[in-house]
């Protein structure tokens, strides 16, 4: 089997890139690959994703992400060079534009470079990411995006000749599904501005005016926006119905989905948000803003959930209220959602990565 190195800016922060990296690393290690996860920097608050990893983990710098002095740059190259010499022939999966620009010229010939981009095309266009992807990813063996739509857009508009699409995997597949009879809307993610939980609270408050008593919005996560969101819930008249749950351990998330009836995603931008897939695997339908090809690949509007135009809170409110009002619709869409995300099961995504490795090795 091949060596596979996953490289991140930091590999242990609580975040989507890191979670996917460790999930893929453990899965590929279980298939016999020699897998290494490399964090170029130490995480400020490290999070353990895998209790008994079958792969090796390396941290190059003891300091968090930031600028490097010439001395630290030389140290980085020396440490990476030593690691690269330990690895057999295989693949270097570079998880972001920053990692690609930093490592692509340092990799030896026996490690074939593959670039990942975990955001959407739309998000890239609004930031420096697009320029970096266009400049550097075409020089790699493959450029991997989260959806066929995103891969096509980058191919056409960033003129990349080497695009490939592989979705993020669902780490587990539950044996049970939610009953959907409870009156609980779930919002899952960091309490940060980009998640726009203020819009979700506004939509939930308005939806409650048409759905009657008993519904609650449970927000699962921590972040700097906590107090502002508490004040917003109070201003919307739903302070008693919005429950701030804090961080829920990964082992406890299945129980949360089983207790939920609707998953609501109000983010300003997303790549391929796993919370939609996790909810769907438990038979829970979603309401989301239509912000990326990744979101559209998980939520088929009117079939597995409902989509609202980006930032259109009234439309989001109508969609949310519609599912809150009808257990029949929740069950119809929830069953379809679970069937749809079978394609995102870990074993199927690992098959796609191994097919990519075979393609690159030809």
Automatic annotation (TrEMBL):
Q: Does the keyword Glycosyltransferase apply?
A: yes
- State the Pfam families in the record: Glyco_transf_4, Glycos_transf_1
| Domain (Glycosyltransferase subfamily 4-like N-terminal) ranges | 15-131
Q: Could you tell me the superkingdom of the organism this chain comes from?
A: Bacteria
Task: Tell me one GO molecular function of this protein.
Answer: glycosyltransferase activity
Q: Does the keyword DNA repair apply?
A: no
Q: Which PANTHER family match?
A: GLYCOSYLTRANSFERASE (PTHR12526)
Q: What is this protein called?
A: Glycosyltransferase involved in cell wall biosynthesis
What is the organism field in this record?
Answer: Streptosporangium album
């Amino acid at each position: 089997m091949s060596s596979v190195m996953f490289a991140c800016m930091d590999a242990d922060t609580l975040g989507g890139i890191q979670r996917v990296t460790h999930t893929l690393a453990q899965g590929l290690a279980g298939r016999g690959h020699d897998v290494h996860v490399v964090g170029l920097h130490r995480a400020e608050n490290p999070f353990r994703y895998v209790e008994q990893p079958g792969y090796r983990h390396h941290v190059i710098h003891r300091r968090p992400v930031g600028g490097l002095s010439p001395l630290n740059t030389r140290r980085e190259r020396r440490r990476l060079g030593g690691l690269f010499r330990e690895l057999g022939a295989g693949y270097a999966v570079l998880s972001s534009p920053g990692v690609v620009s930093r490592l692509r010229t340092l990799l030896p010939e026996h490690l074939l470079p593959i670039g990942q981009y975990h955001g959407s095309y739309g998000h890239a266009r609004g930031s420096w990411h697009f320029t970096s992807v266009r400049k550097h990813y075409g020089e790699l063996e493959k450029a991997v995006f989260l959806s066929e739509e995103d891969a096509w857009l980058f191919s056409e508009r960033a003129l990349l000749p080497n695009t490939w699409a592989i979705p993020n995997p669902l780490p587990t597949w539950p044996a049970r599904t939610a009953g959907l009879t409870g009156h609980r809307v779930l919002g899952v993610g960091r309490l940060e501005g980009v998640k726009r939980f203020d819009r979700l609270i506004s939509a939930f408050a308005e939806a409650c005016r048409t759905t009657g008593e008993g519904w609650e919005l449970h927000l699962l996560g921590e972040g700097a926006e906590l107090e502002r969101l508490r004040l917003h819930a109070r201003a919307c008249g739903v302070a008693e119905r919005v429950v701030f749950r804090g961080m829920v351990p990964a082992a406890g998330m299945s129980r949360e989905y089983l207790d939920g009836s609707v998953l609501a995603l109000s983010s300003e931008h997303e790549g391929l948000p796993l919370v939609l897939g996790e909810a769907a695997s438990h038979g829970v339908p979603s309401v989301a803003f239509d912000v990326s090809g990744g979101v559209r690949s998980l939520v088929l509007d009117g079939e597995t959930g409902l989509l609202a135009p980006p930032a259109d809170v009234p439309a989001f409110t109508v969609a949310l209220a519609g599912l809150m009002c009808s257990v029949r619709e929740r069950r119809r869409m929830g069953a379809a959602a679970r069937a749809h995300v079978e394609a995102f099961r870990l074993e199927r995504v690992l098959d796609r990565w191994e097919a990519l490795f075979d393609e690159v090795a030809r």
